[in-house]
Amino acid sequence: MEIATSHAVASFALLGPSICAVWLPAIRVASWRPVAPWVLLFAAAVMAGLWTGVLQGPGALCLVVLAALAWSARDAGNRWLRCFSILAVIVLAVALALHAVPGFKNPVVIDAARFSVDSAPFTQYANFDKGAVGLLLLALMAPHIGSMSDLRRMARPSLLAALVTVMAVLGAAAAIGYVRWDPKWPPQAWTFLAINLLFTCVAEEAVFRGVIQEQLIQALEHQPRLVGLPVVVSTLLFALIHVNGGLPLVALAALAGLGYSLVYAMTRRVEAAILVHFAVNAVHFVGFSYPCRVG
User: Fold this and answer.
1) Cα atoms found within 13 Å of the Cα of residue 38, Cβ hemisphere only
2) Is the Cβ–Cβ distance between 213 and 231 less than 8 Å?
3) 163: Cβ–Cβ under 8 A, 6 or more apart, which residues?
4) Which pTM was predicted?
C-alpha cells in the first residue's frame, strides 16, 4: 500500500516527535514569547496531515476545539465553565480515540500480519486522531514529570507496578488460554512498539488516568472515605472500552487497568501509568501469542 506508507511517514514522523517534545523546555523564536516545542511540531504535523490527506478539515477543526477545551479545563476561573470543559474534553477525546469523529484517514502500517500460528491476523494503524488526543491531553491537562526529582520519585513504584501488573495480566491470560508462551521478534517489532507506545499507551493513559482519574482525585480530595473511587472509576471505564473484544478481554483489561490506576494514584504522574501500560503490551507482543489465540 504505497499511498498508506507515505501517509504513515508524514503523520508519524511529525506527530511522534511532537509527543516526545512535551518534556522539552520552551524555546524563544525571534522576539516572540517562548513557545513550547511540541506546539511547533504539532502545527507542522497538522499541516503535513492536511497536505497528505491523513487529516481533513472536520478533523482539524475537532483538534482545535479539543485544544481549546483542554486549555479552558486547565485555566478557566469560572467553576461551571471549567466543569463543562472537563466533561467536553472527556467526551470529545474518547470519541476521537475511538475513531468516531470524521476527518481522519488513518494509514495502515502493519497489514494483516500473523505473528503467531494460532493467533488472529493483526493490522495496525498510525492513528492521527488518537495520537493527537494523547499529545494535547498530555501537554495541557495530565500531570507529568517536570524535574529529575519527579523522575526519581516515580521510578521505583513504576518499575515495581510494571513487574506485578505484567505478571498478573499475562499470567491470567495464559491461565485462561487467551494467550500462550511464544517468544519472537518479527521484522515489524520496532514499528509496532513505537506506535503502540506513542499512539496508544500515551493517549489511553492521558484520558483515563491523566484526566478522568486526576479530576476525580481533585474533586474528592476532602472526602477521605471515597479515596478509592477514582481508581475504581478509571479502571472500570478502561475495561468498558474493550467490550468489543469479548468478556475475556474486558476482564483482562480491568486487571491491567487496576495496575495502571494504582500506580497513577501512588505517583500522580501520567508517565508511571504509561510505562506500566507499555510494559504489559510489549511483553505480550514479544513473549506471547499476539494479539490472542483463536479457535
Assistant:
1) 20
2) yes
3) none
4) 0.94
Those residues of the chain that have pLDDT short of 50 are: 1-4
How far out from the chain centre does Cα 284 lie? 17
- Three-state DSSP at 271 gives helix
Q: What does the domain layout of the chain look like in residue ranges?
A: 2-287
Burial of 94 (0-12, 13-18, 19+ CB in 10 A): middle
Residue 112: enclosing H or E segment and its boundaries? strand 108-113
Which residue is associated with the grid cell 500500500?
A: 1
Q: What are the tens digits of pLDDT across the range 238-252?
A: 999 999 999 999 999
pLDDT at 4: 47
Sort 117 into a burial class: Cβ within 10 Å, 0-12 / 13-18 / 19+.
exposed
For the chain, give the number of residues. Answer: 295
- Residue appearing with cell numbers 511529525: 14
Query: Do residues 201 and 281 lie in contact, with contact meaning Cβ atoms separated by under 8 Å?
Result: yes
C-alpha cell of residue 191: 514499528
* Bridge partners for 66 per DSSP: none
Nearest to 266 by CA among 198, 141, 165, 173: 165
